[in-house]
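#structure-requests
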Amino acid sequence: MQKLIERAARDLIGSQYVIALTGAGISTESGIPDFRGANGIWTRNPEAEREAYHTYQRFKADARGYWEEKLRGSSVIGDLVKGVEKAKPNPGHYALAKLEKMGILKCVITQNIDNLHQKAGSKHVLDYHGNAFKLRCPKCGNRFDLKEYDLEKLKDEGKLPPLCPICKIAIKEDIVHFGEPIPQDILKRSWEEVLKCDLMLICGTSAVVYPFAELPRIARQRKIEKEGKIESGLYLARQAPAVTIIEVNAGPTPLTHEGISDYLIQGKTGDILPKIAGEIEK
């Protein structure tokens, strides 16, 4: 493993534009359960998963009922958010923030809704599936801090749902539900980052949830021309991958098996990422 860590450090140092994709695996080390793992929320409660598929339609059909249910704390996502409030970043989060501070890492695109990258000090974070501490207008896309709305007071006064101050329509939590499109601003910026990067770190994601799982595949399709010398002494241009893709995961994923990633460093992100950052510091 040490040789792979050293290789990753060299690759990062030699790159011009590094981004990281992160998933549930980096947050489980902070005590936040995933959804489909061995002890995942939906593994233990399949009915909750079935209900989750209807949440977005419920908001569109009855925004008031959606918010009343959320404030009763009767939803699994609501319970998860309560747990997230107490969670703290772990060494994996801090290592990515350190890489950003070094000027190496340019952006984190995360599936997680827990805000832990921001808590650890990362400044350039795209919350692909939303952020549990924000609200969002489905029309104009503006986001609002939870603290801007006294939701309990609105409930007591019979004034639910909360309204967008610009569009005057019901707003929802920023979390992206099943059947809900990824917000256009996040989708666009994520594509821009993927098309700019020359190294992608994939940390703690199974890479099976779409459209997030498309991002490394889009990166792998990018090619550049490299000039090389052949035996006759002539120089010929050839197509080569434009992006180095490194996985830091507990085990192999479809990206490993399909040859999307260049190599896998197997283990906990909280162990491996700090070692890579430390190797770069040397």
